[in-house]
Amino acid sequence: MIECNGKNIEFSCEVFPPKRNEDMYDIYKTLDEIKLLNPDFISVTYGAGGSNSKRTAQIATYIQNISEVEALAHVTAVGVNPEKLACMLEEFERKNVRRILALRGDKPRDMSDEDFKERYYKYASDIIKVIKDNGNFKIAAACYPEKHPEASTVAEDIKYLKEKVEIGADELITQMFFDNNKFYDFMDKLGAANVNVPVHAGIMPITAANQLGTSVALSGSSVPTELSNIIAKYSEDPISMRKAGVEYAIRQTEDLIKNGVDGIHIYCMNKFDVTREIYEAVVYDLT
């Protein structure tokens, strides 16, 4: 928890399950290191169509019961049916994992367009209602400060986001963004729509030049001139690129905290050192 101007701001980060069982030790080691920062929660992603769902549950259990940090487990609507979802929720309850991020999820590569179209749960809102009715869970939903790539307008996107909150979402976590003004404008629009739940700002430190293209493609985020200039300047200098990217994320985080954000959520890509550098810089500046 970070305190600024009398407001408590949650600090969290996200990890993802490794593809191979033999790499599980590495993620547990990373979690043991992240624990030292005393984050408010650690979220664990869920592979497309549930490809890593078992590892998600294993890692969330480790976070909750071994690391003794609150776990936020991702659950996607794509690839689950009522029976599978019920089993997952029962397992989370048994393992004391009580915080869930409900997502629609992307189409798995091995799923046909027809199967994707005919999937049982169409949207995140479909599983939010089920989760709300089947356990004592705190439910988070995703949001996009610059509009979901599939939404036709910002107004339409916020309309559906409001529906998710009314159905049962207790908090929101944004997709990564790189321009804080876009986030502040988004927050104003949420306020005007009477969407009044905590919003955690998602920060993705860009530590390698080739990382930006993939990140923007997934998030639909615009790239400010300052960040694009950093990429252009240091694209052939990995060490300087990493340093400049982390410093950009620190400046972005400090500005959000000073402007009263509810939470900071670091997309750390399983890199403890980056998470630590951001957290320690912010805490030092505030004390």
DSSP strand count: 9
Query: How many DSSP H or I helices?
Result: 11
How many domains? The number is 1
What's the CATH C level? Alpha Beta
| Main sheet: strands, sense, barrel | 8 strands, parallel, barrel
Radius of gyration of CA atoms, rounded to a whole number: 18 Å
Rounded mean pLDDT is 90
The H/E string reads EEHEHEHEHHEHEHEHHHEH
Separation of the first and last Cα atoms? 13 Å
Helix-strand makeup class: alpha/beta
Q: What does the overall shape look like?
A: globular
Question: Which oligomerization state do the chains in this entry correspond to?
Answer: single chain
The CATH architecture designation is: Alpha-Beta Barrel
The percentage helix is 40-55%
Please report which band the strand proportion falls in: under 5%, 5-15%, 15-25%, 25-35%, 35-45% or over 45%.
15-25%
Main sheet: which strands, in order across? 2-3-4-5-6-7-8-9
